[in-house]
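Troubleshooting: if your tokenizer reports a length mismatch, compare against these two reference records.
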Amino acid sequence: MAWPDPVSLRGAHASLVPLAAEHEAALADATRDGELWRLWYTAVPSPEGMAAEIARRLKLQAAGSMLPFTVLDAAGTPVGMTTYMNIDATHQRVEIGSTWYARRVQRTPLNTECKRLLLGHAFDTLGCIAVEFRTHRLNTQSRRAIERLGAQLDGILRAHQRAADGSLRDTAVYSITAAEWPTVQSHLTWQLAKPR
């Protein structure tokens, strides 16, 4: 039996639905918004590579190491992807990662709500003891977004992986523990409710 099972998570600003092949065209359009695949320190699929990326994520889901989602905006339009990855059912840990959003929804309540939905499901339904986030050390936009969630920096894995261009990636590792979740949840709820 897979852990965790595919699920849809819904909020006011965003919804997460199980990734499916039929999302390809809309996700290809979303990745064009900002030409996100051109950022050297990320691994965002190009429009032409979207079908292969969806297939890769669904294959990892079948193997039990990833649970991929399509991110929908408030109108129900696909605007990105995110996953539970590096799933460790024995120790009840997941990483939230392989996330990207169309430029038009970046720095909006959408990301905050997606993270609140994913963290809530991880801690309240799956009983996770910790949830991790990882990003390139030089991806300052991603690091600041993770820190705004309330995640703590666990450390930097130096020369951790090779990037597509052959350079070595230093990976910044963050986490939120189950004991921290109630405070983080209050913080995210406040972030979503505050006047803009």
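Reference record two:
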Amino acid sequence: MNKLMVVSGNANPKLAKEICACLRVKLGDVLVGRFSEGEIRIKVNEDVRGKDVFVIQPTCPPVNDNLMELLILLDALRRASAKRITAVIPYYGYARQDRKDQPRVPITAKLVANLLDNAGADRVLTMDLHAGQIQGFFDIPVDHLFAINVFVEYIERMKFDNLVVVSPDVGGIKMARAYAKRLSAALAIVDKRRISPEKAEVMNILGEVKDRDALIVDDLAATGGSLVEAASAIKKAGAKNIYAAISHGVLSGNANENIAQSVIKELFITDTIPFKPAESNKKIKVLSVAGLLAEAIRRIRKEESVSSLFDGITQ
């Protein structure tokens, strides 16, 4: 492992340090700053020639700044003769723009994939993509991890007797089914109509939620509007306590307030995106994925199977 090197931008240095602690390596010495006019300034302060370098940088808000930092880091490492460069992107921004669902709109998820490839990434390690087909946007290997093991391990300790796993929309059925199978729980689906990119209207609930504890599962929550609407509909249908497990807690805009005032009893998110808990919201619990990412990095470095990390997870 002496040829392994882990570096980080400014997106989530805390997660990068925790990954390094799990791997028992020190975080690489890289300057990531700004020039006076705002341009990103990067300098790698130690030798990377011939090394296997992993760049920890989720493209979370501010998305464009963090994405640009990642691209420049990749370019700097490539020009410094790193042997292999892996972009570790726990949260892949622009993933919701993965298709042309309206006339004259871009497929930005593909554009970002091209940028990463051209900047110098030899492979990508990411987690819970908004759409699995984004893996096919890359011409380099992509290792796609899932946060389900982290969530399931925590939820099993809560010892629910009569749990139902709820998908907040039809597109999340596969993920919800995987959770239901692992937790030996029932399955329900919220049928909703999307009014705008941030707002949806619940139409029906498919499945039995009455007198059950409900767990809503999804890959990300931005403003929390859809999540709160789904929780409210489930509560009206007779559910007892409502929980939610969301892989990426973007939580932009009024999300904290929306969740604090909702019927959701507790929201579980991962630390793929830095989260500063609001004083007014004690409902949010952050679970770490540092151990999972560190194990994936170790296996990639040693040329071992990464898929065995999620054997038995069918999505």
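Descriptive notes for reference record two:
- Residues 148-287 form a domain with the Rossmann fold fold (CATH 3.40.50.2020).
- The chain has two domains: 4-145, 148-287.
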